[in-house]
Amino acid sequence: MELTAAKKDLLKLVNRMQAVAEKKSTMQVLSNVLLAAEGNGQLRLAATDLYLGLLGRIEATIAKPGSVAVPAKDLFERIKNMPDGPIVIATQDNGQTTLKAQGTARRYTLRGVPGEDFPPLPQPQEGSPSYSLDVLALKELMDKTHFSISTDETRAHLNSALFEWEGDTVRMVTTDGHRLSKMEIKVPGKHATTSMLIPLKAINELRRLCDEAIAEGGDKATLSIIESGSSAFFQTGGVTFSVKLVEAKFPPYSQVIPQNTDKIVRVSRSGLHEALKAVSIASSERTSGVKVAVQKGTMRITSESPESGEGFDELPVDYAGPNLSIGFNAKYFLDVLAALTDDEVELALSGELDPAVVRPSTAQKREGSDFLAVVMPMRI
Amino acid sequence: MSASPIMSRVRSQDTAVQVLRRAVAAGSVHHAYLFEGPAGVGKELAALGLAQALVCERRAPGESDACGTCSACLRANLTHDRVTRHPDITILERALYEPQRIGRRTPESQDISIDQVRTLVLARAAFGPHEGRAKVFIVRRAEELGTSAANALLKTLEEPGDKTHFILLSAQPGDLLPTVRSRTMRVRFGSLPESTVKALLLEQGKDEAVATRAAALACGTMEEAMVTADPELLAGRDAFVLDVLDAITKSERGRGYELAEQAKKDKSKLDADLVALARALHLRLRAESTDAARPAANARRIAEAFAMVTESAENLAGNNNPQLVVESLYFKLRDVLRPALGQPR
């Protein structure tokens, strides 16, 4: 294989690749990135950890087609240290790969393995359903829900986010068993029906991908989602990100969302966030438990723990119902409040041991978007 | 690497191979097999053959064997690291992977750890096969699965999900947890006929005389044949026997401690060494007891020593400290053998 490509293009793509390539896999070859020079003047790059895969192409002048897989991190560092301008990449039969900055003496040699040893990335089958979605919409779905994905890798169905598309509504739901968040966005004119479970690791990479796509293509950037077999493919800005979907059943989340919440408390989002944060530093480190007591016009937040003493704060709320006092994990509320941008939020409560619903205040509800979070109470 | 299907390289295991080929052709490959039989008779080759047939890109439904030539088939062959390059064929074995790759700090010196089961099996349980055809897990020396590792595997072993297959290999299936055994379908592999062992040795370039002699001594397994056909390995094993006898005839006991010190370094080698020692004692016993001129007490002493060595081997298998096993064996042997070797106690 022998080719010439611009440092700028290579650096950007290899940087993305090394985030996906697995350093500590039991399959050594997965720490590599595949470089495949194709006849049509393009260099194809691929990296995978068997769960996520990233495939990208850049323009290159191909002198001799071929392929090689070289350690991703090493390649990235070497390209980074090359002077700007074209870089010549050439391989020998044994996988030895030489990088040379054109017109200078700087040169690196890397030990690689033949491209055939690199596991092929999943490919969408022909005729698979494909959907187009605004990057901004996908980003918002993930930003509003990612924090309540369970980090327990042994429970794959909770260690992932449910992505659903029904009619012109896209929805993402996540839960870890103690809390749940659900975000819905209307995408007028785009109709589809699908449901997939995207693992946490993929959500983290997808968020990065969306940020980059917005940085490059602005708010109007779109991506296409292709569903094929047990994988989903997200294509934007010249790269294809493939995700192995979780083959498990997400809990029936609609049954978890309480329906008869009659006590509605309206409160300033930033005010509540600040008060909770302040009081929770005096709560038990293990449980972050705080007691939230509401009465006409005020909310009192208290915490006490044997090791850190007591904390107390009070803030004005819009509430006219009977007195009620519920224990919560403050962190769960803080996560929700931090993800929202609205000025006022609404807590919908029913009883002392019933889950609470947090959502943007109805008065301020934005057209076409619907968010709610459920937080389970705790005994304090 | 040869391009024939791996299954066709399995020798003299016609029943087992037929069972597996039929299952592949019928599309009814069980989700958990236990291949049992002595070490070195083709269990692993058959397991790889089955895995290859399951991941082959060109095998049409109804066909019983892999094509052997497509990219997936080629990658199903073992590399020099004793793993495959196919992402859907995963091999589990004690100490096969560096500890940090499976999320451990210390090497797996005792058993296949729960960490290995977690990183290699459980983490992938919720996902389909990478290349879409099948996901195969091969467990070498499955009796070395630790209790917690085996228990962690149970649920997945029972209901592994679509297109997922486990193949457990074991020469001591009796040592597996009964809960694991009952979840697997057994396929038996017998000892190889002497002619097969000889033919395989000849294919590996051994000369006729060596192959004939080694095959006769190999007890029908290639593992043993590889040692008996290799003068260096054989000499290494004899060296231990000679060392022990030498240490016993010496009047000072320091040499015995040295042997014990060496033994703790390599547990797997010690096992083979003890077998060799038992075998040497056995030969000696036969010579003594057939020679009427020798005192009968000698034969009795050697028989006693033989029993001590086999007991030590059992203790070792039961996870006793190798150094202590060798040390206590040395002193016991010294007591019974010194008179038989014409030395004062």
Q: What would CATH call the architecture of the largest domain in chain B?
A: 3-Layer(aba) Sandwich
- Output the CATH homologous superfamily of the largest domain in chain A: DNA Polymerase III, subunit A, domain 2
Strand order in the largest sheet of chain A: 10-6-2-3-4-18-17-16-11
Which parts of chain B are unreliable, with pLDDT below 50 for 5 consecutive residues or more? none
| Classification by helices and strands of chain B | alpha/beta
By oligomeric state, this entry counts as: heterodimer
Order of helices and strands of chain B: HEHHEHEHEHEHHHHHHHH
Q: Return the CATH class of the largest domain in chain A.
A: Alpha Beta
Major β-sheet annotation of chain A: 9 strands, antiparallel
Under the CATH scheme, the architecture of the largest domain in chain A is Roll
Textual characterization of the structure:
The complex is a heterodimer of chains A (380) and B (345). Chain A folds into three domains: 2-117, Roll (DNA Polymerase III, Chain A, domain 2), CATH 3.10.150; 130-253, Roll (DNA Polymerase III, Chain A, domain 2); 258-375, DNA Polymerase III, subunit A, domain 2 (DNA Polymerase III, Chain A, domain 2, Roll). Chain A has six helices and 26 strands. Chain A has helices at residues 7-20, 72-80, 135-145, 200-217, 269-280, 330-339, and strands at residues 2-6, 32-38, 42-48, 52-59, 61-64, 66-71, 86-91, 96-101, 107-111, 113-114, 130-134, 160-167, 169-175, 179-186, 192-199, 222-228, 231-236, 239-244, 263-268, 289-295, 298-305, 309-316, 324-329, 344-349, 356-360, 369-375. In chain A, β17 and β18 (239-244) form a beta hairpin. In chain A, α1 (7-20) packs antiparallel against α2, α3 crosses α4 and α5 runs antiparallel to α6 (330-339). Chain B has two domains: 6-188, Rossmann fold; 230-340, Zinc Finger, Delta Prime, domain 3, CATH 1.20.272. Helices cover 52% and strands 7% of the residues of chain B. Chain B has 14 helices and five strands. In chain B, strands 2-3-4-1-5 form a five-stranded parallel beta sheet, with helices on both faces. In chain B, α10 crosses α12 (267-290). The model of chain B has no long low-confidence stretch (mean pLDDT 89). Classes of the chains: A alpha+beta (380), B alpha/beta (345). The A-B interface holds A 24-29, 50-51, 116-117, 119-120, 122, 153-154, 156-157, 229-230, 244-248 and B 71, 74-75, 81, 83, 85-87, 90, 97, 100-102, 118-120, 122-132, 161-162.
